[in-house]
Amino acid sequence: MLKALGGESETVIVVRETHYLVGWVEWIAIHQDDEKALKIADDITGKLKRSTSSKKKPTQPRTTATRKSGSNTPADAASAPLVSGRDPVADR
Questions:
Q1: Which end of the chain is more exposed for a tag (fewer CB within 10 A), N or C?
Q2: pTM, entire model
Q3: In sequence order, what are the residues at sequence separation of 6 or more whose Cβ sits closer than 8 angstroms to the Cβ of residue 63?
Q4: Is residue 28 classed exposed, middle or buried when 0-12, 13-18 and 19+ CB atoms within 10 A define those classes?
């Protein structure tokens, strides 16, 4: 992704976050005014979503999906990704 965006610049940066319990996360931040970089990122993520949705679905039953809250990103909990499965902490 970073290579397709032309590397880091004033409007494209790699954000690196660490936490002693969960390890690290790296994500790419693109300034809202960089329309060219946003289009490139949207095209790539669209291709990734299409390629993963075409893979064979698991045969085991799925549990209901829930939204994870407490995200470390500026996005609020309502826009957090859906996570399926049981919560291991709540199952104790």
A1: C
A2: 0.53
A3: 84, 85, 86
A4: middle
pLDDT greater at residue 73 or residue 49: 49
pLDDT of 68 higher than 80: no
Report how far apart the first and last C-alpha atoms of the chain are (Å, whole number).
39
The structure tokens listed for 22 are 């969960």
- Report the length, in residues, of the chain: 92
Burial of 12 (0-12, 13-18, 19+ CB in 10 A): buried
Q: Quote the DSSP letter at residue 76.
A: -
**pLDDT grade for 71, boundaries at 50, 70 and 90:** very low
